[in-house]
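Incident log, structure service

09:12 report received: a user says their structure output differs between two submissions of the same chain.
09:20 pulled the input from the user's history:
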Amino acid sequence: MAARDGSSSLDHLEQAREMVWDALQMLEEAQRIIFKAGDCYVETVWGEGVRAVIHVTERITDVSGDLTAAQSELGRLIARDRNRPPDG
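09:34 re-ran on a clean worker, output below:
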């Protein structure tokens, strides 16, 4: 069934999946930047800053895993929606 703007559920699911993919890419880039901060801490401070960087990157890894699972579920919904008859 199409929404008021003419978009189908498939259109919305595909848009959501693309947004999740973009979020994953941004998280990966953030993780790379945080690793650079960690390198700076190792060079100058070593200690609390390094532990904080490790903690943040572990949390990003957890979030990335959750987003990956959500993206996979969206993929399953998209596949199911594509196989659904047009009227229902």
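09:41 both user submissions now match this output. Likely a transient worker issue. Closing.
09:42 reviewer note: Residues 70 and 76 are 10 Å apart (CA to CA). The mean pLDDT is 85.
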